[in-house]
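CORE FACILITY INTAKE
Project code: CF-77B
Contact: R.S. (postdoc)
Sample description: multi-component assembly, two entities in total
Requested service: structural model of the whole complex
Turnaround: standard
Below are the sequence entries exactly as provided by the requester. Do not edit them.
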Amino acid sequence: MNGRVKSLRKQSIETVPCISIERAVLVTEAYKEYSGKVSVPMLRALTFKHLMENKAICINPGELIVGERGLGPQATPTYPELCCHTVEDLEIIDDRDKIFFKVSNEVKDIQRDKIIPYWKGRSIREKIFGHMSNEWLDCYNAGIFTEFMEQRAPGHTVADGKIYKKGFLDFKADIEKSLQSVDYLNDPEAYEKQEQLKAMRLCADAIIAYANRHAEKAAELAADEKDPVRKKELERIAKVCSHVPAHAPRNFWEALQAYWFVHIGVITELNTWDSFNPGKLDQHLYPFYKKGIGEGTLTRERALELLECFWVKFNNQPAPPKVGVTLAESGTYTDFANINIGGIKPDGSDGVNEVSYMLLEVIGDMKILQPSTNVQVSQKNPDRFVKKACEVIRMGMGFPSVFNTDAVVKELMRQGKTIEDARCGGTSGCVEIGTFGKEAYILTGYFNIPKVLEITLYNGTDPRTGKRIGLETGDPASFESYDQLFEAFEKQMRHFLDIKIRGNNIIEKLYATNMPAPFLSIIVDDCIKKGKDYNAGGARYNSNYIQGVGIGTITDCLSAVKYHVFDNKTMTMEGLLEALGDDFKGHEKIRQLLVNKTPRYGNDDDYADYLMVSVFQTFFGLVDGRKNLKGGSYRINMLPTTCHIYFGSVTGATPDGRRAAYPLSEGISPVQGADRNGPTAVIKSASKMDHIKTGGTLLNQKFSPQVLEGEEGLEKLTHLIRSYFRLEGHHIQFNVVSADTLRDAQNNPGNYGGLIVRVAGYSDYFNNLSKELQDEIITRTEHCSF
Amino acid sequence: MATGTIFNIQKYSIHDGPGIRTTVFLKGCPLSCWWCHNPESQRYGPQLVLWKERCIGCGDCTKACPEDAILPENTPPIIDEDKCSCCGACARVCPATALEIIGKAVTSEYVMKEIEKDLIFYDQSGGGVAFSGGEPLMQPEFLKSLLKECKKRDIHTVVDTSGYANWEILSAVSGITDLFLYDIKHMDDAVHTKTVGVSNRVILENLRKLAWIHNNINIRIPLVPGINDDQTNIHETAQFISSINIKDVNILPYHRTGIDKYGRLGREYRVADVREPSKEYVESIGKVFVGYGLSVKIGG
């Protein structure tokens, strides 16, 4: 990393995150001006235009890629149309120990005097909670499920290659064409289409205007600049910004800047989940790289420098401030822009190129939280690529995570995507599959599977509150067989999933009618062609997900009940329930038996593993294929972000010997410490799940650094990954850090400011994690060297 | 179907030969090296160990013991070793796994089932299985049966041996083993006898003969500072290896990971004052072997 990048990186890391009120003020102005006078899509477009024409322009000293979402690095806007914070919210956001944002008094005053008076009662969050049934609210409060869209907008999508081939003037021409073909005589939706397309057209103008304002600012700065080198750079920035994104980029620099303007556009329009993501960056950039090197207009060093400047831009944008359950399920500054490296090309051939290796170098060089990164590994990719990635993994930041591209393509095709579209896809967020540039794949909320068993064991009542929120499926002490218990569990699961999906259907409609995203719609096929918004089914594919959490915990719970109560009669159901009710106080012997003498998931033991399969199949069967309102289907995936901590906190003692309020298992990983036969056994257990039926699974492994030492350690890790992928595992990622180091970091945080660890589908500074999450990571089984 | 006593089946072994391996540890060893990091492997037959800190004081072990060998009302329990027959009844009922039986009698069928679970990893990595110990040659019928079963299934086999066995056994095993990991601890018989417990004559003689009939042998040298790292011994060892036309040498630097096990077994650790050698030092020893035309790998 050169001096320029070093100083930009330093600025990015050392700047304290704060709330920027600028966006809230501009959005409020626009709504006051236009709301009620124009159609909703036009209102959103005029708001976007108002933002793009008036938000402050920031060009940081020394930077080459420009554009900030807030006033500067780490200045983070709010989205009052979705979630209007109370002044108390802001105080909590300012004051909390972790994932805080500084809030100035001025910001609080503006929020109190200008923002709250307009938005109170109008925000999506209030609409959602106002529209939900009592049973939905009961389940939400009990921690049966979470709701993704209560303070952040649907997004969960990724750019494909079109923005490198077309400028927004070209997109405008496409929009015109679509407008021309609106059939006002026969199409009952003609008006809606017209308004949507006009809104998209306006947004295209707005993003071009925003870029031009950067060009002007850069030219101004250049005129005043004394340093001749920087002067030239600023002039170049001006040139770049006056060309992209209006026109298609012509070179490497313009390609990166074009993406970045789009990124800022998407995350300013709404606070989309997973921010936004360039997807297969190496494949998109390679033609520009090749051309530049060939013509002699680009050097490898310059390309590397530009990439590192680009990296900093991601890190400058923390995830917008979250509150309540949303903070609990996703407690991190990371905003999940997850760059895909390697994999295959749309024609199915090996997609690894020189830029892929450069991106791996950048990750190791930058050692920075954002963007997240992953490698896509196909049978067609050379082993040296995987080994190179393992070398970066060995550095111990949990980057990059590793995906099985061949499985991803299969998963997408099972959902009905064409093979070409599937190959254009990849993974984003934590582990979620999608056809990039063509799909809205919306995560709707986490689902607490162990809690469903808890409710079953209490015959429909939540023991934490004493409230009956489930069905009365019978007193478990009266069950004569394990099958009877499982049948009751399945009934409860169906009941809760029905409640979740009924709520989802309302929320989906609220967004479709109130919160169109005309800017995002420009770059997602086939919104222009259909004249339909991204949030209303305009995308070619529309998938909704429910994410199952705690498969390891539920498996061990069911295994414990089956093994001890029904198969071996080591204990009675009454005895077990009593121990659970007492949170094992006075029942330590029972707890030890449950922990130590139960076949457990993660050991390649069919007894436990096939119970996992039965839960998975049940969850899959109850969700997959249900229709959503956008013409697509519901799917499942298996990931938790930080929700296994939150779900654990609301779940009482469980039959796997877990005490009340302790975390659940994470992703599809075994219960922390339950896997005792090494990583191959974990992989075998995990691969008994049919990953192809999911939209993503998440397997975390922790290795002590010695296991990966030397060339041999790397080679064997590569083989481990390849083996998992031959078994059609979806994804695996590694923490390479010893428990001793983590314990020391917990006690002496000051010495470990830069320690980055893998949490679930993302990495985070160890110091940024809650104590519970730190403990959870420490207790994960550490595979040592033998 | 043969039966034998094993004390562990270790998956994802990455230091016992090429690729990813499953290592089967056979129990019982005629040697008693001072630095042994698997002291639980030495005795034949099952052995009871006590993890004191795990005990929750439930007293179930006392009730379960058919020999009345566990005194009541002690946390952790006090075991009368003279009465204990290592039947394992206490370990079976102990909810906290504070009592564990090390070493269980198993059939070759059982072991093969475990080995076959990781076939995909062997195939991917060019790995297979390793038989270690203890001294695997001390259970010759069991070992041969496992090696034959592996051959049948085309699974690559490694035998990790001290070489202290009847030549008839070793030569029979030799025909069905793909790779030997063969230890040389000391060239001086007196030091060998003192620190390892047996003479080195059989070991070196067997190695000479084995090298004649088997062409895939890696020599392993546990490098224990103060015991076998003097220049004379290093040079003699290297000389001997090159004289019998063996090429590959692995130097295994002494490490202290086994130290806790001695406590749990109630045994004395006789090399407590030996320090782990530095990387540079081990490399300098490695260079001596290279000087004899040998190919050296540090670590397993």
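Facility notes:
- The first strand of chain A starts at residue 18 and ends at 20.
- The interface with chain B takes residues 588-590, 592-593, 596-597, 604, 677-681, 684, 707, 710, 712-713, 715-716, 719-720, 722-723, 726-727, 783, 785-786 of chain A (CB under 8 Å).
Invoice: internal transfer
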